[in-house]
Amino acid sequence: MTRPTPETLANSARRARSGTGAAGDSDNAAASRPGRGAPAGDAATTPVRQPATAQVSGAGSLVRSLEALGVDVVFGIPGGAILPAYDPLYDSTVRHILVRHEQGAGHAATGYAQATGRVGVCIATSGPGATNLVTPIADAYMDSVPIVAITGQVARPSIGTDAFQEADIQGITLPITKHNFLVQTADEIPRVLAEAFHLAATGRPGPVLVDIPKDVLQAPATFSWPPTLDLPGYRPTLHPHGKQIREAARLMTGARRPVLYVGGGVLKAGATEGLRRLAEQTGIPVVTTLMALGAFPDSHRQHLGMPGMHGTVAAVYGLQKADLIVALGARFDDRVTGRLDSFAPDATVVHADIDPAEIGKNRHVDVPIVGDARHVIDELVAAVTAEQAAGTSTDLTDWWTQLDDLRQRYPLGFEEPSDGTLSPQYVIKRLGEIAGPDAIYVAGVGQHQMWASQFISYEKPQTWLNSGGLGTMGYAVPAAMGAKVGCPDTTVWAIDGDGCFQMTNQELATCALEGIPVKVAVINNGNLGMVRQWQTLFYGERYSNTELGTHKHRIPDFVKLAEALGCVGLRCENAADVDKTIEAAMAINDAPVVIDFVVGKDAMVWPMVAAGTSNDEIMFARGVRPAFDEDEL
Questions:
Q1: CA–CA separation, 360 and 165 (whole Å)
Q2: What's the burial of 175, exposed, middle or buried (CB within 10 Å: 0-12/13-18/19+)?
Q3: What confidence score (pLDDT) does residue 629 get?
């Protein structure tokens, strides 16, 4: 799995190189990336077999631009306003996957991008088609995923008249896109598409929307490639300031209780190898957020696990009691910090991020570092080496003694249900052990998401996909579809809840017809599990509107539903059958597979920091609070 090379925009979606950061190698955008007055790519190296200039329609120019950008697949649904684009797409080398709902197209583009590191593309028509993309666009924005959403719009003379299927999708998505465009002329389509892909993939990645009126698609145009980009204000800083790096290294080699707090930006920058070098060189404990699982091997001795609301006791304690936090590509999210005014009260904070708006946004920062995570980490390694060569080092023996004690006393685990029902944690644990660390795991949102983050061991980057920031139910199935399209030789498991699954399972019909053999584990507890857990703990067990009927009435019957959607349907209801059911699914590679794991309804996610409380109040289990010995500090 590789990252795009932004130096040559013509190949940005197809050509990739291992270990490249999201923002590339240049010190700033002007050094080696297209900017104002710079060509978008070298026509001699593009994969396009067509004249550099041609007379086409706006729609033809759109499709040729996608080909020139190296796009291999798009996910979408045609409709009136976008229909002109579908005619030249019929003869294109770009594969179009006809989804069953525009939300599925958006999440599929996201899953494709997260699994491959390339830009994902989705297409929808105007009005409701475009507004159905709002949720996946917001999802990609929160998790910094590079996608380009192309929408049709009513003809220019009709804009603003409340025409049939008109919606101001540019205005609607303004707060949830990195940038968006309303194309005004057919001749500007190549430049706008090239700029959209460049913006989506570089700096802090994110979604970009391109809205094209129908009459622009139908108008005659001159297609010319490569275009000249005009982005005068876009100059992401890639290399960090040397003075800040040296100060961070000085703090790292002198701290007594340091922690490396690793976020998803490290994955997006392709910085995982450098992170391992930095951790091993310093001996500092590592915590990885929900979005960063796989950035540092779960099995590594220095990995404390995931911090936050459902993180490990050792990871939560490590951050809370640290005297130095080095945040790399993380944003001090509320799910990590708990009550912010009580978070890590004694810690000096080094915060490195490619987006300067994140630094100091939630937590005061002592050493701010703006830069691409790969460059930041590589330069930290060099600076730490220099400090150590000068004789500066610290003894972390006492710190590790405390952390190891907590790991031993409060390991992740679960109790078997007393009523004899199937344990969801056991199902997910065995799934991870049987499918192995090379598989890609895509989770929905809720209890099953947290159990998947806890009980599967993530050893490699880009093997864990989930909706972290927005928490979008319905994400898993279409995102798994996109991941499988991008990585066809990799086993892809969607781990979904019975609530999430019912939101977007229609995309399994797409998978069946398009030959996309994803595997789906439905953790069926008959309820909206995480909401029910909160009702148990905070609402006196008043279960208002959380029972789904998938247990009591078996509506829907997930096995029959899977078969109706062209998939293989399996069911497992006891622990003795878990392994053979998973192995049966693993043996099927020519069709999508759905397993209905009927599990107990009372299982809860532990540890837990209740929303709005301090991380000091973490609960290891119901009624069990870890004993943090303050005297040790």
A1: 42
A2: exposed
A3: 57
